[in-house]
Amino acid sequence: MSDRRLLFYNDSRHYYLYCYDPPIGLADVRAPVDELLGTRVDTLVYGSGPGATVFHNTRVGEIWGERFDGFDTMYAYRAAENIRSLIERGLDPLDVLIDRAHEKEMEFFASLRMANPGPPDADSVFNSKFNLDHPEWCLRTRSSSNFNYVHPEVRAERFALAEEYVSRYDVDGLELDWAFEPVFFEEGEVEENTPLMTGFVRQIRQAVD
Q: 155 and 149 in contact (C-beta within 8 Å)?
């Protein structure tokens, strides 16, 4: 598709996997695409997960809820069980959406959130084992507890997810979501580390190309 008229972002959570009682049916799995049919939207931008964990059958990251035997909120339970039920049926939630988008002649962009929204020491469904095991890789002098991109391990973890999107899935594009909690270096260290971030984005671009 040469000219995109309108891109629509779906965060995969609040009006999707949080809403359906498990096990989710295929018609509901396809809803993020089907609800756009008949509109001028021709590109779905899909954020598969809140940041630290993801909502698809990743091989390089952590699936939402996979560390937990139970949940204290309905939304966490619904999302985790819906993802699990699809994977147990041999379906990757991301593949289902991509196939549906292409069936309806719609482009599909994966969106990767570059921040971690949860405190690094909280055993929350929003956190991954990666940052629970390494709180020292998160910001300490800012109001945010995001990943600190000065650490090569942090960049490698995000790169692996970005590379997986473009190598394992038939996506038409990749969005890097820097807008959510846009703090990535310690106070006073942004300017000196800007080239580091530029090189990191260049590395992802090369993987996409």
A: yes
Give, for 108, the enclosing helix (H) or strand (E). Answer: strand 107-113
H-type alpha helices, the chain: 26-29, 31-34, 74-88, 93-103, 129-133, 152-168, 190-208
Establish if 2 belongs to a structural domain: no
Q: Among 153, 150, 171, which residue's Cα sits nearest to residue 43?
A: 171
Count of structural domains, the chain: 1
Does residue 181 sit within a domain? Answer: yes
Put residue 169 in one of left, alpha, beta given phi > 0 → left and psi -120 to 50 → alpha: beta
The pTM score is 0.94
**Structure tokens given for 41:** 């939207």
Could you list the residue range(s) of the whole structural domain that residue 26 is in? 7-208
pLDDT (tens place) for every residue of the chain, 209 residues total? 557 789 999 999 999 999 999 999 999 999 999 999 999 999 999 999 998 999 999 999 999 999 999 999 999 999 999 999 999 999 999 999 999 999 999 999 999 999 886 666 677 888 899 988 998 998 888 777 788 999 999 999 999 999 999 999 999 999 999 999 899 999 999 999 999 999 999 999 999 99
Q: Does residue 1 sit within a domain? A: no
| Dist CA 114 CA 162 (whole Å) | 10
